[in-house]
Amino acid sequence: MIKLVRIEPAGPRSLHLRFSDGSHGEWSAEAILARRTVMTEPLEDEAYFRRAFIEAGALAWPNGLDFSAAKLVTDMTEQGTLHRSQAA
Predict the structure, then answer these.
(1) How far apart are alpha carbons 61 and 39 in whole angstroms?
(2) Would you write out the chain's pLDDT as a tens digit for each of its 88 residues?
(3) Strand ranges, E, within 1-88
(4) Sign of CA dihedral 38, 6, 26, 79
(5) Distance between CA atoms of 49 and 82, rounded to whole angstroms?
(6) Cα–Cα distance between 54 and 8 in angstroms, integer?
(7) Where does the chain have alpha helices with state H?
(8) Are the C-beta atoms of residues 76 and 59 closer than 8 Å to each other?
(9) Rounded to whole angstroms, how far apart are CA atoms 85 and 42?
(10) Which of 24, 69, 80, 83 could bond to 18 as cystine, CB 3.0-4.6 Å?
């Protein structure tokens, strides 16, 4: 099972993510922010957005919003932003 192992800010609404299989890339929150739900509205504030953390291998925020590593990998693959490590 793939897990999120590292997050770093990459912009006001994006994060650079690294996964347990070595894949990595930039994840944009624009699509989820466009939904404008009770759970996503706090992420509009850049300071709050940067409070993201890893919980049990998933991307999470203090308000309980979270995204599994599998969902993030799928989204990033579809967006063309996931880079996979080359096997040696």
Answers:
(1) 10
(2) 999 999 999 999 999 999 999 999 999 999 999 999 999 999 999 999 999 999 999 999 999 999 999 999 999 999 999 999 765 4
(3) 4-11, 14-19, 24-28, 53-55, 58-60, 66-67, 82-83
(4) negative
(5) 21
(6) 11
(7) 30-33, 46-49, 69-79
(8) no
(9) 33
(10) 24
Residue with tokens 């624009």: 30
Neighbours of 22 (CB within 10 A): 12
pTM for the predicted model, two decimal places: 0.91
**Residue 79 DSSP SS3:** helix
Separation CA 78–CA 81 (nearest Å): 8
Q: Are 73 and 39 in contact (CB under 8 A)?
A: no
